[in-house]
Amino acid sequence: MRAIIQNELNGPLTLTDVPKPAPLPTEVLVRVHAAGVNPVDWKTRAGGGMAGLQSFPFINGWDVSGVVEEVGFGVTTLKPGDEVYGMPRFPHAASAYAEYVTAPSRHFAKKPQSLTHVEAGALPLAALTAWQILKDTADVQPGQKVLITAAAGGVGHLAVQIAKAHGAYVIGTARGPKHAFLKDLGADEVIDYTLGDYAGNDIDVLVDLVGGSSPEAVRSGGLFVGVPSGVDSVRRDDIRISPILVEPDRAGLEAITALVESGELRVHVDATFPLEDAGKAHALGETGRTQGKIVLETL
Ligand SMILES: NC(=O)c1ccc[n+]([C@@H]2O[C@H](COP(=O)([O-])OP(=O)(O)OC[C@H]3O[C@@H](n4cnc5c(N)ncnc54)[C@H](OP(=O)(O)O)[C@@H]3O)[C@@H](O)[C@H]2O)c1
């Protein structure tokens, strides 16, 4: 099969023929149609992110949308022909920048029928991050104020909608040209962070997708979630401070599918690239200006 191989730290992403994997017991073999690109991909390529858990030759990528081609012994909930999506194996390698992946069957869920593979492939890691923060960690309630930094990016634009779906009052930060996009997603307030920060101190949940944001906006007793880099430098004794690392999660994917099918969650794909242009996709992502998601097409 064709896959994008990296042979050394920070080395080039090279299209190469490699053996097609075979599913072990409880695994499925998925023909990948689309592989979403996330910041952890380019961080890992360069030696950060999840690089410490990988070995060379390394096949990058975690987000998959595709079709089950074969099931391993013991798999009862998926069958050949099922359209699935997921973020398997994270933080270990999933090797999604390839024509096929194998992974535990329960790291996948049925793909939302209303989405193309490109759209579904854009969702898993970013949407699961947003879901696991807002639902599992914060348990956001109607009327709560949620402040999301980098709200127009991959995680942010989904977090805005997931918070709105739970009845929250949502404030998002982005540069001015992205404010119409955020309003269209349902944000109640938008802040151009280049002109200043949120002025209040009444935020119930602050989702910091930039890293290093001040927790001053959080009300006493509220929650600060540091998404990119942990929370080592955040100091406040009167609030809950939490890092997060997204986990494979079929239940979370099924909840995300339900939000998509009910029209409460849509994914914005900023750019697509053919598999062989994975390096170009990383270069675009590394500009830090992505609105929504970048996806590799692997068919
Ligand atoms: N812990 C975890 O499990 C986990 C999971 C997913 C992602 N992450 C991390 O979370 C971060 C966000 O991920 P992502 O996929 O959403 O990234 P992304 O899609 O690459 O984010 C791009 C967005 O960031 C905004 N941005 C850039 N610099 C900013 C700044 N200084 N202030 C406010 N906004 C800024 C840009 O908007 P403007 O053009 O408006 O600036 C752009 O829309 C990354 O560091 C990623 O590694 C962690």
UniProtKB/TrEMBL annotation:
Keywords: Oxidoreductase. It comes from the Bacteria. Residues 11-296 form the Enoyl reductase (ER) domain. Gene3D superfamilies: Medium-chain alcohol dehydrogenases, catalytic domain, NAD(P)-binding Rossmann-like Domain. InterPro entries: ADH-like_N, ER, GroES-like_sf, NAD(P)-bd_dom_sf, Quin_OxRdtase/zeta-crystal_CS, YIM1/Zinc_Alcohol_DH_Fams. SUPFAM superfamilies: GroES-like, NAD(P)-binding Rossmann-fold domains. GO terms for molecular function: oxidoreductase activity; zinc ion binding. It holds the Pfam family ADH_zinc_N_2. PANTHER family: ALCOHOL DEHYDROGENASE RELATED, RETICULON-4-INTERACTING PROTEIN 1, MITOCHONDRIAL. This is NADPH:quinone reductase.
